[in-house]
Every structure is written in C-alpha cells, then in structure tokens.
Specification:
The chain is of the alpha/beta class. It is built from 16 helices and 16 strands. It has 2 domains: 235 residues, 3-Layer(aba) Sandwich (Rossmann fold), CATH 3.40.50; 209 residues, Glycogen Phosphorylase B (Rossmann fold).
C-alpha cells in the first residue's frame, strides 16, 4: 500500500484530538505511509474558499477547508444532523427533510472531493469516514479517481423501510456503492443495507461479503471498531485520574457509584435511563443512601432544537428523582452537563460499581469498552449494556437490557449492585479478553486488508 488518505468531517489536526477514537486507528497508518488527512478546518467564512489550509505534523499532511455559513447550516446542521442522523438512529419522527439542504450536502461532498482528487497519487488508498460523506466515493470517481476507496459508517444503518423515507435514498445508495468496501459497526447494520440493495435494486449476494449491484461489485462487511485498551488502562492510572476519583469519593463516602457518560443526544436514551434510576429507588428503598448515580452528559449540537428540548427534559427528570428520593446528606442522581478529560473519565470508571451504557440505538459505543478496561481486576464493576448498541454483539457477558423497559433496566442495575465478587470477576475477564483481542488495531487492519488485498 502507498499512502493512506483519510477523509472525515473533523480531523486530528489538534494534537489533543489524537488520544482516542478514530484518531488512534488512523494516525499510525498515516504516519507510517506519509499520508494525508482531509476535512473541515472548524472555521466558518462568508464565501466559498478557493483553496485549503495545508500543513504537516509528525509526517502527516493535513488539508483542511473552511465551510461557509450556508454550508455549515445546510450540509452539517440540517442534512447531516437533522436528516441522516435521526433517520439512521431510527428516529424518523425527528427528521426534517429538505431538498435544498441535500443539494448543499452534495455540493460540499463534491467540493471536498475536488480538493482531495487534486492531491491524490497513483498508489494511494482512500478511507472515508462517517455520515457526512456518504456521497464522497461517487464524487471522487466523477473527479477521475480510480484507486481503492473505502467507507466506514460510525453510526447505525436503519432498516430499508426507514431508509426509504429519505427522499434522496436512491441517490445516496448509488453513491455509496461507488466505494470498493463499505464497513458497518455490526452485522445487523450490514444486513439492513444489504437487504435494501437486494429489495430495491435486485442486488445479488455473491458470498464472502460481496454484493453485485449497479453493474459493479462492492464488499459490504461488519468491522466492529475497538479502542486502544492499553492506552485507556494506563489513562485510568494517571495522576489526573486519581484526582478525579478522589474528588468524587469525597462526595460518595462508602456509597457505590453508578456512572453513565454520554453526549447529550436523543439516541443515548438518557430520559429512559433516568426513569430507570427512579424505578430502582422506588422498587428498592433499601438502596436509599447507599448508591449514587452520576450522569455526565456534555451538550451536543446545542443549536439543534431537539437537543435543547432534551436538556430541559433531563433537568426536570433529575429534579423529580432527587426531590422524591434525596435527603439532607445524599443526592441520588448527579447530572453534570459538562465535559471531562479522557483521564478524568477513566478515573471515575475505575471506581464505579456499575457502568450504564443504555442507548436507544448506537453504532458501537466505545464507552462500554473503556469502562471495562478501567476496572481493577481485584474488584471490577459491572457493565449494563443496551441490546441496541453495536457493542452488544461482542460484549455478551455484560448485563444486556432493553433500554425502553425501565423495570428491566432497574432490575439489571440492582443485579449489578448486588452481584457477588466471583461473578463480577468472571464476567469482567471475558469482556476484557474481547476488548483486548478486538482492539482498534485489529479493526483498522481488517478493514485495510479488505480494501487493499494482496496482488
């Protein structure tokens, strides 16, 4: 393989963004191959930029373009986050279909494709990431690029019946099949996309994850993304992690900590989780004063109306639960709408008895894997995991729950809080083995192997 070329809406141009997630997977390959990373600079301007900001860091070339205010409004806020995001997360009721926004979404994909195509070399391999660039493969082909081009979707893919509600679904599907390899987080997501191609366009499954459609063959497979397990385990042992654990321990006393960490997003099931916490204390009054639940939920996409409404709903639920169950020296549910560093979160995970990861729908949810790696072997906590998170396909030894059922989620939290040490250790060892074996490097290598098979 020659150079790796990465394309994503946001990049790791800021060195602080290279500690986790996508950056960990892509960064090493970019450095090894002298590759390039294309994306948005984060800046907004009045007029469409004629060029891009180009610089190098640690041997990696960054090529960043500004967005106009109109592009940001229509491409990012409207089409990406008010059409694709809700529909792909099974929330058709929150979608705001907008033909003008789709045109801008398409135009941005084409504009960035033009910037990329002008800098590509013959032996490059292009790896495109996430829902902002569903049309990028097709745009690159029209710009003259014929080399290997793969796409990985970090969020779920909906059932065909739901995907077809998007007025431009035919256009999107055809454009996606311009990629040589399309990767999904779970086998369920892959099955949804393949069923759509078979039902809608008479796609033919050829075996070995290959499907023939639109006159060409595309590999469509599940590549569940992992984390850097050693890196997160080390993060949990840092001084910063120790300080975070010490700060919350002063509040906890000898109480058990139940923790959730999610962006404030309607896909995360936070209202349903809060209701389950209330049900826990309703059903088990003996837990009063013995358990403290902390939910960290930094604001996300605060300009979108649905997120402002979610914030109001969470404020009301937390107030009711604490009013009903709290006491002078005990707050049942602490709800913190702010961000914490990776090390601080690792320190909080380390001392938590229960990790709540209960999204209504998630592509993977790496918090589940980070919680596992932060746990101490001698006294590990228990992961309560939604069956609708992509991670549930791998982490079968967690307590798997339906996040819509507050009674079963409350029961699972209680089971986790009262689980004997021997069972906690046995479950944790199995989960840890999966996270370590199927880590971020395993994910990257599987995808790139399929994208650039040996001659």
């Amino acid at each position: 393989m020659g150079r790796l070329i990465a394309i994503s809406n946001r990049t790791a141009a800021d060195p602080k963004a290279r500690a986790g997630g996508l950056a960990v997977a892509v960064w090493e390959s970019l450095k090894e191959t002298g590759g390039s990373w294309f994306g948005w600079s984060g800046n907004l301007v009045d007029d469409v930029p004629r060029g891009a900001n180009v610089f190098r860091d640690e041997g990696v070339e960054f090529v960043l373009t500004d967005l106009t205010h109109e592009e940001h409004e229509n491409y990012y806020l409207n089409y990406a986050n008010r059409v694709i995001w809700p529909v792909f997360h099974y929330r058709l009721d929150l979608a705001h279909f907008n033909g003008e926004a789709f045109k801008t979404y398409s135009d941005v994909n084409q504009r960035i494709a033009g910037i990329v195509a002008n800098r590509l070399q013959r032996d490059d391999t292009v790896w495109v990431h996430d829902y902002h660039f569903l049309l990028m493969g097709d745009a690159l082909r029209h710009a003259g690029w014929e080399g290997p081009t793969g796409f990985f979707l970090h969020i779920p893919f909906p059932p065909p019946e739901m995907f077809r509600a998007i007025p431009e679904h035919h256009w999107i599907a055809r454009a996606m099949c311009a990629y040589d390899v399309i990767g999904f987080q779970s086998s369920h997501d892959r099955a949804n996309f393949v069923r759509y191609l078979v039902d809608q366009f008479d796609g033919e499954e050829l075996g070995e994850d290959l499907i023939r459609v639109f006159g060409s063959t595309t590999r469509v497979a599940a590549y569940p993304i992992g984390i850097d397990p050693d890196g997160f385990r080390d993060a949990a042992q840092t001084a910063k992690a120790d300080r975070a654990a010490e700060r919350i321990s002063r509040f906890l006393g000898d109480r058990h900590l139940v923790i959730g960490v999610d962006r404030m997003d309607y896909s995360k099931g936070l209202p349903q989780r809060f209701e389950a916490v209330g049900q826990l204390f309703d059903a088990h009054p003996e837990m009063d004063g013995k358990v403290s639940v902390t939910q960290i939920a930094p604001p996300s996409r605060s300009k979108v109306e649905e997120y402002q409404e979610l914030r109001t709903q969470l404020d009301q639920l937390a107030g009711r639960i604490n009013g009903d169950h709290g006491d002078l020296d005990w707050i049942p549910l602490r709800y913190l709408a702010r961000s914490y560093s990776r090390e601080e979160l690792a320190g909080l995970f380390r001392i938590a008895r229960v990790g709540l990861v209960t999204p209504l729908r998630d592509g993977m949810n790496l918090v589940a894997k980070e919680f596992i790696m932060a746990q101490p072997e001698e006294d590990p906590g228990v992961l309560v995991l939604s069956e609708f998170a992509g991670a549930a396909e791998q982490l079968r030894d967690a307590l798997i729950v339906n996040p819509h059922d507050k009674f079963k989620v409350a029961d699972a939290i209680y089971q986790a809080l009262t689980m004997p040490l021997e069972e906690r250790q046995a479950r944790w060892r199995k989960l840890k083995a999966v996270v370590e074996e199927q880590d971020i490097g395993w994910w990257r290598n599987r995808f790139l192997k399929d994208l650039t098979p040996a001659d």
